Amino acid sequence: MSFATRHLFDWSLRTRTLALGHHTCIMGILNITPDSFSDGGHFYTPANETERAVTQALAMLHAGAHLLDIGGESTRPKAIPLSPDEEQARILPVISAILKAKPEAILSIDTFHASTAQLAIAAGAEIINDVSGHQWDPAMSTTCAQLACGVVLMHARGTPQTWQSLSPLPKADLLPTILNDLGERIADATTAGIPRDRIVVDPGFAFGKIGDENYTLHAHLDALQSLKLPILAATSRKGFLAKTIAPLNNGATPPPGARLHATTASNVAAILAGAHIIRVHDVLPALEAAAIADAILIAR
Question: Is the pTM of this model over 0.90?
Fold first, then answer.
């Protein structure tokens, strides 16, 4: 069995540099939303009470997360679009509270609104993780260039409102489409003034990828190394994993919280294919899985 060679990078963030490739970087997920597919409502209250969200953030950091990805707007299929003002009201108090308790924490903000990115970075975040690859707000690339922050460019085909009506791609077209689109996103970002050493790419598992298309992407994830940038993989608790293990659950689709073992298998496969960062809900199991996968990469 052969595994990918994971290349080394120094990822330039807003105030610091994060070495990638020596070991897998664990990004903990914190959704401050009422409607995210997995933890919607768990860490959100309409009264802007931050305690539950901050407690979860500190627990993930204590468990060993290297950075946290904070989102205020759900991007599940058919999600109701949110105004930037409401998104900001959800996340900005949480950013401030986390950094007050843990000033050294590295925070990434999951947003596709340039105005939210600007305020989040001003509040102390280091990274903007845009699931649209800077496609849904034309000001995002210029804003991130001006903010001089770390950037995650993700590939999404369609939007949350159209995913369930998308036609499948021919299997042979999937990877070329993702690579071509990400190449264009990278070119647009660098033209706007974002240096390549600030960019990480994410192929966008389940974001417009239908069913087994996600396994085609998984099987060829190492192809993203041709982009010569660090790779983030985010498959935690996703529906395509649940569908695969449903026959082991008498045909019933396991709820998000019961998808840990499937997620772990997916994380290990992604690391062995060269992923530098894995984005997860369950930090300690991800760290343990990454330790084994990293040891295998080192041993080869």
Answer: yes
